[in-house]
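I need you to check the entry underneath: sequence plus fold tokens. Let me know what the token row says about the fold.

>
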Amino acid sequence: METQILKLDQPYEYIYCNGSIGLHIATMIVYETKTNEDGDYELETHSHPVVKYSKRPGGTVWNRAELTDCTVLCREDNRRITMEQFYNFVNDMRQGEMPVPMEIAVSKMMLNQNNIEIEWPILRDEDGYMSQQEEFNISLEFKRNTESELYDYSCYDLGIGDIGPFTGAAPLYFFARFNTKEELKSHLINGMSSYYRMFRNHKFRIEYLWPEGSEFADVVDEVNQMEPEIRKDCNDIDV
């Protein structure tokens, strides 16, 4: 087995894989000779990223990651990603499972540690006027979990597409499993609080919507009535 280090030119790119973010500074090529089923020799090559972690000297080889498994977040000279990129990052970290608010908050902390900012979504109306999105209407979907006696709820806003005359709206994701209305209430409050704390430097409000005739309408409405107080409490807390 032989190895070769290919150094990259700056500006480097931030990449992520297997729950980690690193600055991609080089690639380690591994050459390995193996015998196939016919007894012939074959040359295999593997490309592993060499990354630099924030506030750590030197480089670290991601031995368990192939370069093709990694996703680029941004370059070091432009440490900004869109809200859509952020949620792709969160979903990849969760391997396709819907993330809960706490996991979304942890993912944002990882970005903060690398000084990567999330661009706040900008809406554009029919006349081309642009403004920051300040209203997030989160549509809830409730269903009985097929593997237990618990309920699941997942929440979607109106998506990345159109909102009335506006385009460019960003998603906020929520997911939780509950058994009682009190548990649902707690989850909805925690989800709302998580976003207000994560993005407390932006002015926005969250409102939950529910399907017509839902048995949980009273809980959702109660949380919506609490929204101003929840938002104020989050803005008053140092995080």
